[in-house]
Amino acid sequence: MPETNDLNPADLIDRITCFGPRYSGPNVLINTASNLRVPSVWSDEAATSNSFPSSGKSSTDFSPSIITGFQLTTLAGPLCEEPMMGVCFVLQEFTVTETTVSEKAEPGDGTVSQSSAYGPLSGQLISTMKEGCRRAFQAQPQRLMVALYSSVIQTTSDVLGKVYGVINRRRGRVISDHMLEGSDTFNITTSIPVCESFGFAEEIRKKTSGLALPQLVFSHWEVLEVDPFWIPTTEEEYTHYGDKADAENIARRYMNQVRKRKGLPVEEKVVAHAEKQRTIKKNK
Length: 284
Description:
- Helix 3 crosses helix 5 (121-138).
- The strands form two sheets. Strands 5-6-4-7 form a four-stranded antiparallel beta sheet, with helices on one face. Strands 1-2-3 form a three-stranded mixed beta sheet.
- It is extended, with a radius of gyration of 27 Å.
- With 284 residues, the chain is of the alpha+beta class.
- The protein is built from nine helices and seven strands.
- The chain is 29% helix and 19% strand.
- Mean pLDDT is 79; it is low at 46-60 and 100-105.
- The relative contact order is 0.10.
């Protein structure tokens, strides 16, 4: 967390403005701006008005627009337009610039009112807060949250190797495996990403000729410790990964899959590394 005017953690907890998304999510908005009065989530507006001193320049309550912009940001993050998890935003400074645009336009004088030119001030604050939160999030290292299934597979020792092969191809992780007493049946407990689980049960049944029966149950969310926008920058990384770094980035593949399904733009090159020329010669 960045420096927040030398406040200790107890003061930051008192300055929590809201949670998001839907006012009950795992993301937090903290207000440390001295000239913005935003009610705290722990008390009513009357009790918190003294906790956030105002400069007296404006009596307008901007808190609904600020909170709405934060809610929109956490509801649809910049990576996949999916809800964000475990992100804390700190509002350190709030400034409203006075413009020279006429507030009330007279007919025929050639001036344009501020409302008609830029929209209502509340809408401008919502879009500004939303864009500011998204850019602040993208300025830090970004990670994806992956949903995981917990799978219990019962199989015999004859096809145990084939079951492990399917789990590895699906980027699964074996948690425990043990043999049932008095039989040759193994119980294998694994965790498999949800995005890799499509067709998982059918593939296992085909590879094992119906001897393995998986059961998938949603388990938890897990942080994928891979930066989807990573590129080699240091000399050691260039030596290990090469200049192209053409090894598959799992986080970027997951992100692009979600964006394609939603119809969002995807940064992909049709020709990634055009080094070889293929000449098709017609045989006569």
